Amino acid sequence: MSETSRICSWKIAFALDNPIRRLIHNPQNILGGYIKAGQTVLDLGCGPGTFSVAMAEMVGESGKVIAVDVQEEMLKLVREKAARQGLQARIVTHKVGPGGIGLSEKVDFALAFYMVHEVPDAEAFLKEVASLLKPRGKLLIVEPKMHVSEDDFEKTVEVARRAGLKIVSEPRVRLSRSKLFQLGSG
């Protein structure tokens, strides 16, 4: 399987961002307790921006969302959606290169929604994500039950632990497996 065959194509972005999806996976309900005004947050594998735009509303005028994806077409959709909603000043898009995420800015919160299973090297990815978190920064990993078995998800959890992340909670997300991690928590 090639690296690009693991990734959900931008050509089906409509399936990732529509009213039914937002009803099932309401960004405010899922993320509202973790994101605060003024924070810098990271949307990993942002796709067409379902969560990025909602996160931009949550961080307010003094906050920032870094929307990251491997597909420039997805990032273009995020920029267009942000502009339509007047949120373009709060969202920065970043295209991932072949060597990793490629960011250095520290973030308060990172979201990896339905994307870790698409990453060719989860260990390197999660180590890089952990390095981007501020002290006590949080990472929410959510994976689809239809694509990720319980055993495979537990392997991801173990990789996250080796990256220096500790489980804080197990939020309930419909049709999903999820864990909230924190850097440096006890």
Strand order of the largest sheet: 3-2-1-4-5-7-6
Write the CATH architecture name: 3-Layer(aba) Sandwich
Order of helices and strands: HHHEHEHEEHEHEE
User: What shape does the CA trace take?
Assistant: globular
Distance between the termini: 39 Å
Query: Main sheet?
Result: 7 strands, mixed
Q: What's the CATH H-level homologous superfamily?
A: Vaccinia Virus protein VP39
- Tally of alpha and pi helices: 7
- Total beta strand runs: 7
What's the domain count?
A: 1
Global Rg: 15 Å
Helical content (DSSP H or I, runs of 4+): 25-40%
Walk me through what this model shows.
It contains 7 helices and 7 strands. The chain has 186 residues and is an alpha/beta fold. The chain has a single domain (4-138), classed as Rossmann fold (3-Layer(aba) Sandwich). Strands 3-2-1-4-5-7-6 form a 7-stranded mixed sheet, with helices on both faces. α6 links the parallel β4 and β5 (133-144). α6 packs across α7 (150-162). The protein is globular, with a radius of gyration of 15 Å. Residues 1-5 have low confidence and may be disordered.
Brief summary:
The chain is of the alpha/beta class and 186 residues long.
Compile the SSE list and pairings.
Blueprint: H1 13-16, H2 19-24, H3 27-31, E1 40-44, H4 50-59, E2 64-69, H5 72-84, E3 91-95, E4 107-113, H6 122-132, E5 133-144, H7 150-162, E6 165-169, E7 176-183
Parallel strand pairs: 1-2, 1-4, 2-3, 4-5
Antiparallel strand pairs: 5-7, 6-7
Helix pairs in contact: 6-7
